[in-house]
Specification:
Belongs to the N-acetylmuramoyl-L-alanine amidase 3 family. This protein has 435 residues and is an alpha/beta fold. 31% of the residues lie in helices and 25% in strands. The strands form 4 sheets. The chain has a 6-stranded mixed sheet, with helices on both faces. α4 runs antiparallel to α5.
């Protein structure tokens, strides 16, 4: 689906849901590095955040939202001197945070969980400047739980009674991909803010949909299925990365819509059971389109990582209708690490050193994707990465802009005399004021 068409559909869908939300509570919490403002909501909202100078202010506009005056906690904390609110455009809520000095502001939404409902979180960072003491005690302080880890579901293909492909010298696909998947899981678990879930950690048979269900049970942010391809021509070699094709997405959508009892919570947390057929299909199509778009981006990152290890079968991401890629709510990729039918690649697949290289290459692609696209409320979203691995098409000026650092500082930190970069190169991102 074209991005523009998707945005038009999203706008239409949003208008169908234009029911006023209410802020049920306003909470403030501060520590030495950050001040956090939390708005408890009784429904999801669209919002916009921006800053103003002279004097310093942060403005938050919430569409179709109302706030009772008695719900606004008129307390100061950190750089917040005062909180004001008003009605904008007759239906939107505008919150204004009057500040004692400049801040770096960001916001994100949290979905309901077992303890809390919808929440809008606004974080203010003062870049180490001295914070203004509160004018009066805060009446209601609530420390938000630590940001969550990204969950990476890693799926070693085949297993148990299904050995997968077999190499010339008798190597079974199910065993080598399990070793690679275990190595990838270890590296993921060593990453701050990431946690791996293996669909199988032994020689066990799982159906294709059981693998998808395991990922969904753990609320996975990404599903990575690991395989080793085979072909009748033993000369064929190289790695490949697949995402779901549009044809595969369409057939899966038809299957889900035909089984209404399985349609709940398959569209980014939105239940489809209480929607009519047209609205259900639109919501699901939007979710699938977003999932495929994210899958393509992470797949491209992983493919670029694999190019640093050895030959790739095709230099672009491929699309197919593999069942394990059909989750409409989880970005999913399938990695063919090598052709086990090629004697040379079969030999490498059994080597611990090569398995390690493949696992590290996949991790590099996963890291690059999530550092560029951190989901709200995650550790990665709240902690800027201090390293960046160059991908095809990157420029130094774009990287400097992304991390809000100067070109001069970026060059000085990495000992660069010009702007030339190469794929796979690792840059250190300078801290504020460094360089």
């Amino acid at each position: 689906m074209k991005r523009r068409f998707g945005l038009l559909l999203l706008g239409w869908l949003t208008s169908l849901w234009a029911v006023a939300a209410e802020v049920t509570q306003v909470r403030v919490w501060a520590d030495a590095e950050r001040t956090r403002l939390v708005l408890d909501l009784d429904a999801p909202v669209e919002h916009e955040l921006f800053t103003l100078s002279g004097p310093e202010r942060v403005v938050v506009d919430l569409e179709g939202t109302r706030l009772s005056a008695d719900k606004l906690e008129r307390a100061t904390s950190g750089p917040i001197r005062n909180l004001r609110h008003g009605v904008r455009n007759g239906r939107d809520l505008r919150l204004v945070l009057d500040l004692s000095g400049p801040v770096k502001a960001r916001s994100f939404l949290l979905k309901p969980d077992q303890e809390s409902g919808h929440r809008l979180v606004v974080d203010l960072e003062t870049s180490g400047q001295a914070r203004r003491a509160p004018e009066r005690p805060v009446k209601s302080v609530d420390q938000i739980r630590s940001p969550r880890d990204l969950v990476i579901a890693i799926d070693p293909g085949h297993g148990g009674k299904d050995p997968g492909a077999r190499g010339t010298h008798g190597t079974h696909e199910k065993q080598v991909v399990l070793e690679i998947a275990r190595r990838l899981a270890r590296h993921v678990n060593q990453e701050p803010g990431m946690r791996a879930v293996l669909t199988r950690d032994g020689d066990r048979f799982l159906s294709l949909r059981q693998r998808m269900d395991i990922a969904r049970k753990h609320d996975a942010d990404l599903f990575v299925s690991v395989h080793a391809d085979a072909f009748r021509d033993r000369r064929v070699q190289g790695s490949s990365v697949y995402v779901l094709s549009r044809r595969g997405a369409s057939s899966e959508m038809a299957r889900i819509l035909a089984q209404s009892e399985n349609a709940a919570d398959l569209a980014g947390g939105v239940s489809l059971n209480d929607k009519d057929e047209l609205l259900r299909s639109v919501i699901l199509d939007l979710s699938q389109s977003a999932s495929i778009e994210a899958s393509l981006e992470v797949a491209d990152n992983v493919l670029q990582g694999l190019q640093q290890v050895g030959k790739v079968h095709k230099d672009h991401v491929q699309q197919a209708g593999f069942v394990v890629l059909k989750s409409p709510d989880i970005p999913s990729i399938l990695v063919e690490t090598a052709f086990i039918s090629n004697p040379g690649e079969e030999r490498k697949l059994k080597q611990a050193g090569h398995q390690e290289k493949l696992a590290r290459a996949m991790l590099a692609g996963i890291r690059n994707y999530f550092y560029s696209n951190p989901p709200p409320g995650t550790y990665v979203a709240l902690h800027n990465p201090r390293e960046y691995v160059i991908r095809r098409g990157d420029t130094l000026s774009e990287i400097a802009s992304r991390y809000n650092v100067s070109l001069r500082a970026l060059r000085a930190t990495n000992g660069l005399n010009g702007d030339r970069l190469y794929v796979g190169q690792t840059l250190r991102i300078p801290e504020a004021g460094e360089g």
